[in-house]
Amino acid sequence: MATRTPKTGKTTATASTPATPATPATPSTPSTPGTPRTPKVAKSAPRAPASRDMPAAAASVSPPAYGSRELSTGCKGPDVAELQTRLAGFRGTLPDGDFGGGSVLQVTTFQRDVMKMAAPTGVVDRATFLAIDTFADQYPIDFQLLRCPCGTCKGFGRQLFKGLYFDGQPKAEAFYRYEYPGIHRMLLWAARAVFFYVPKRQLTFNSGYRCSVDNANHQRNTTNHHGKAVDIDIVLAPGEDKKDDMVNCDAVRSMLGATANAQIGWLTPNRKSLEPSNIAPTWVHYDVRCYESKYLTDDAFCTSNAALNMRLPIT
After folding, report:
1. Cα–Cα distance between 250 and 90 in angstroms, integer?
2. What does pTM read for this prediction?
């Protein structure tokens, strides 16, 4: 658990397979005089299978970049995974690159709640791509609030302890000692949705990155804040007290179950998680600790809005 700091009024809101050349024929052994020669028949090389989402002529080119094609049910690729990351706070599904029913729900939720579409389509057209970019601009992340306060690392760990776990513990993310290189992008996109869904309250990050040095300084044995978690505070309004704070945090946790498909606790794999109120009574701890390692690769972490947004042309 992170050491709490006094609440402030600072807010954070407020991206033709060329056919393989035929193998040259091996020169034949000279035939015995008088023996007829068998004519050679040229064999064409087999063609590489085309990708499901690309014509055969383009199967060997790089996959479509995010924003370069319309996305809908059945699409697959890294651009779909990027979409799933950016809409993590709108129901949310795995960033697995497969546009299925979960992705449709993400898109329709965003179109209904953010774009105010009366009849959401579930199809990501140019207008939807642009709306996602606008949403990012409306809710920038204050990375200064997320930097580790240890004074030893540069704010986001030193990428120590890769592949190492606490002694005597299972090889699970809860006990993984690695200092990831930043904060998980999907988590920060999901945090933006918290700011969107709680417009009448003043929100701020209370805890972000906490490297192994900072953990040792405060006698912590958790690695949640090695890039996998953020803590969000709801700033008290005039006249509110700790009891009100607890009620407010419970309300936000409940909301995140409905809007972001987040779970309280860490029972279900591959879902965003919230600390229960007995651990986090006056703040909202939000993490991606339950995700499989393939969704926690180094390139999924960032240290700036530019890396978080990964802004690309929308065509």
Report:
1. 19
2. 0.81
